[in-house]
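[INFO] parsing input record for Protein kinase domain-containing protein
[DEBUG] input buffer:
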Amino acid sequence: MATCEKKPRSFPVPVIASVIPVSVLLLLSIITIFWRLKRGRLNVSLSSSVGLSRKELSLKSKNQPFTYTEIVSITNNFQTIIGEGGFGRVYLGNLKDGHQVAVKLLSQSSRQGCKEFLAEVQLLMIVHHKNLVSLVGYCNEHENMALVYEYMANGNLKEQLLENSTNMLNWRERLQIAVDTAQGLEYLHNGCRPPIVHRDLKSSNILLTENLQAKIADFGLSKAFATEGDSHVITEPAGTNGYIDPEFRASGNLNKKSDVYSFGILLCELITGQPPLIRGHQGHTHILQWVSPLVERGDIQSIIDPRLQGEFNTNCAWKALEIALSCVPPTSRQRPDMSDILGELKECLAMEMSSKMSMHDSVEMNLVLDTDMTPNLR
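[DEBUG] output buffer:
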């Protein structure tokens, strides 16, 4: 009986020649992706959901285009105005699933045009962080342009710091807002590749949730730089009076440290309750000019917002002020990085919370001692 020996299969030379280059290319692609991941070059897309709640993730995942007819319906024919800025008016809206949203409509007279609108859409489609306002969707229908954001129940920080504000922020809340804002800005500067410079950081662009979590808004003027060391010469207007980096104003050179200066002014606002430009009988005084002589005298009580009525830890207040002043030297090279600022602010917040806990424990101990020492009258 004959046995049949199974011969090994042979592949034609052309097939082998075509498979090898494809395999090599595939291997190189995998190595490249792994290397970029290790280097953090894909941070924008891969770390985009860090710190987001389930509700925020459900909103973020939409990023849907809306028709102008849908925008009219969502806002109930633009019935309720909840804000206004350089881009246009902001209206309260309601989606079909029950989520409240804020709809920013580009006005015909807006100084921010189509270019800034598209820049904001593109950035918010890829940049996501718990301390950045999330984009739900957008409308780009001929001359009708709108951005649809998550709704922020407590408005903006500027409103909360006004003298006639009904809900006065306490010291711990102010420090937490500072930490939240620093986290959002640090993510833009160091968590994104390329780094993103906000360019118009100010109290009206810090929005607050119902739990007073702070989120940075208004990316219409943002610039993404090719490398961390880059600075760009900007010819068009950027920033808001009182917050603008003096070095940028003089030279037009924009970099991450321009945002650091603006953050320092914002922190001074939180500490003092004063606006960046303080109105007086002889015109406006910049907040740094107002605070400098008080710092020289060591008069922290006159620096801290008087509405707090002394309800703050003095050491913590001085530390917060030192952090703020470290952000505002006239030259950018003298200013710290946002990662260092964030670390210092977290220490400051921990100091305040520790002080409150110690005070609470002390009060409880006194109550116990008072109870033990009360005579038992029969």
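[INFO] Residues 1-11, 33-49, 54-61 have pLDDT under 50 and may be disordered.
[INFO] shutting down worker
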